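In practice, a research group might receive sequence data for several interacting partners and want a quick structural hypothesis before committing to experiments. The following worked case mirrors that situation: the sequences arrive first, and a predicted assembly follows.
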Amino acid sequence: MNNFPTKPKKLSQSPWSLFWRYLLRNRMAMTGGIILILFYGLALCASFAAPYGANDQNRTQYYCPPTRPHFIDSEGSFHLRPFVYNKVLEDRKWTLYKDDTSKMYPIKFFAKGEPYKIMGLIPFDRHLFGLESEEGRIYILGTDQFGRDVFSRLLFGARISLSIGLAGILISFTFGMLAGGISGYFGGKIDTVIMRFTELIMSIPALYLILSIRAAFPDTMDSARMYLIIVVILAFIGWAGMSRIIRGMVLSIKENDYVTAARALGLGHMRIIIRHILPNTLSFVIVAATISIPGYILGEVALSFLGVGIMEPAASWGNMLKQAQSVRVLTSFPWILSPGYVIFMTVLAFNFLGDGLRDALDPRKILSSK
Amino acid sequence: MIPLLIGITFFSFMIISMAPGDFLTVMSQNPQITAETIATMRAKFGLDQPWYIQYFKWLWNVIHLDFGYSFANQVPVFTLIGQRMLNTFILALSAALFAWVISIPLGIISAVRQNSIVDRTASFVAFIGLSIPQVFFALIMVYFAAKTGWFPIGGMKSIDFEYMSTGGQIVDLIHHLILPTIVLGSISMAGRMRQMRGNLLDTLLQDYVQTARAKGLSEQVVIYKHALRNAINPLITLFGFTLANLLSGAFLVEVVMSWPGLGRLTLDALFTRDLYLVMGSLIMASVMLILGNLTADILLALSDPRIKYE
Amino acid sequence: MQEKLMGDHLLEIKNLSTYFHLETGAAKAVEDVSFHIDTGETLGLVGESGCGKSVTSLSIMRLVQSPPGKIENGSILFNGRNLLDIPEPEMRKVRGNDIAMIFQEPMTSLNPVFTIGSQIIEAVTLHQNVGKGEARNRTVEMLRLVGISDPDQRVDEYPHQLSGGMRQRAMIAMALSCNPVLLIADEPTTALDVTIQAQIMELLDKLKDELNMSILLITHDLGVVAESADRMEVMYAGRIVEEGSTQDIFANPGHPYTKGLIKSVPRLDTQLDRLSVIEGTVPDPADLPPGCPFNPRCPLADDRCREDIPALESIDVDEKNHIARCFYSERVRTL
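A structural hypothesis for the assembly, expressed as tokens:
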């Protein structure tokens, strides 16, 4: 009876798989994602990936330019394994260096170096790459004022700068969602109070407020406390905006029938808010989070740059950039600006990813991709 | 708005007062000043009283337009802030105009020639502009200025400013304005461009655009009269908002590029715990933000006939 | 105004095909459609959403979004010219002037930031050589003609200040402001309340007579067609499946789809246990079944229907102009 030709098997149409397929096809978003995974991964194993410690000073090689790997030596012969020459200070006044071509230091991978502890427990002494030499030094991105390897410091600084972003977002979004949920759900006085408070916070320009709150704390604290304070301050600024938006979403979500059904079942208010209403804001929150994290990272950078954030000798991208404020340093030793590039790439990656996520979660796209 | 301002001042005062020590603590570290002098000054400035009493005294004075004295500079807060605020305003206005003059036409072209090379390049540039950290961009510009010598590396005036003719002074000001403007305005420019493009693309899908075409109007008129007039509406309201944002966002640019504005002043005041100066700055910054939002609301009511102006 | 040879149709469409080229393939929105409209008549174009009637009307006006749409084939003869051949500036002179169009949603079809007066004046000054003052007078007259009270005041009001019915009247005023000979009305009453619907249709009928105009009435509402159309075309999946005078078609439908449509209109004078429906849904124009496109839903379908597409043939010797695209037209009366 029915002799229609069989149709080709269609791919799964569940929102989840549609979302993934759309995201994976987006090359920019994928690039962003890979860069972020790379950065966070390197930050995680900074002790391994960095050839030197964050605070290993070398007083004879300060403001040293990056050492280039060579394949061909001064006599013209080719070596398969790249090597570097050591830098020697030639001109003290202008701080110029010269390659010392008398000794070649081959670059070794998985090289032996300064010992450290993985996760603070397991002792290990191998590094991603190194020279395994007492006096030879490889500075991929040069050194700073104290002769510290910029590349190594960058990796250790990543731990602080990148994690502050995540920590800040976690706290502020949790509070923002709760506050917005409560505000939108209950309405009335609670709503007014919370919204007035957020309006207050949002009426003071962010950086001014951050600095003022920061001034309420002692100028110098130990690194752990400083880190915590910075995260708390940034989160305090951030939750206000999120809560207002969540509140708006909750106002419309709570009109849905399934909410009434939940109430009819006798579920408590908080349970309804947390388990039934807030999850519907998830797609928006994920996108907002991805796009907001750079703001927190930049917040830390600003604070440390101005000298009120992470302090020396701890490394953070912000306080590393501080050295670039001197015009003389900036123009003579431009590799000092490396943290800036890395921050830029991080923000770019987050924005690419966030954009891609937003497109993939766009309900219009989901409907039209038949 | 007034309750909001009072709330802000209250909140700010409370926070500042929580700061350990005050201006005099900083001064007391100066061995040349005796403890007695400090004590006398403390009583004179009323710093020995609980913070809420200080607050009401301060608020009372503010209502009479007396913003108090800057401890560090020994001049009234009002005079100090006034000049700096003007500088910040000049920078912010310049950045806002820069952002707008570039973003609107660029956004329109991108939308009209969707997916062309112009569109793709503009979108790419916009993306970069949105993502580049201000601090980094400012440092790059300083580097650029130092290496090429085409622009001053900071500041607002040249050393011999006073000796220039009025015309020369204006040129000098503009010369100093260029790089900070680009740094400050780039984020806004990028955002507005993308928005203009998105709005126009959405508007072109609207029914009334088809009606306009069905009337026999040329594509030119359809786009630039019917569609654009609707698409640009949200952006007009944003102008006030943009300006407000830039006023406070100028902080970092001012610091890195040595622009003598409110941001720099506030930073120094915070370091020296110059209480009244900080309060003055905070108030000014907040007022500017609020005014910006208010302007945005007014512009919206004026430009969109659907909204009744209260 | 325009010259017309006697005996010729006002508008004649021959073998019109409009496809939309999507990533997944070509959607054949309009396939080999031919019909004509004569002076002073109302032709109804009927079908469910997605059958291609709107695309047909947009094709006449050459307003199809291109890309992805494209008029592949056919000719549209109007006033001795093939509208598909003339250059764009020429076509613009036809739009709003000789052929005008009104749309379904009066709320969104008028530009919210301009007054209705200025929008109508725009059309008048575009096509007719008159000054601003004269244009405004004509506009006010048009508004009066379509039944808007206090036209001198309304002319300076914004669309959002008018009710739905008045907005549609304003749209009609705008469309008719340059005395077109053909008005294409795409679902003019669908978005309106029932009582307003009746008023608008009455208005259109009246204006048609007064201005000696023809109307191409596009709708899915059979009631509206029965009331106002002289002849009608039934479309399904991009093709004409039946054509004839309204009376003939309602009395004696020659296509199972038409019969299904007529049967599904609830009547107050008969007792029914259940509403009659046509099983299934309209096919995806990018994925049409082989053979007659209606066959999956047709109670009369057999193997022949699944292989070949029937041609349009006269269903009755007496009703020469009544044609249908079905192999089994004579069996339709049994449904």
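Before designing any experiment, note the following. Residues 1-9, 366-370 of chain A have pLDDT under 50 and may be disordered. Chain A is about 55% helix and 15% strand.
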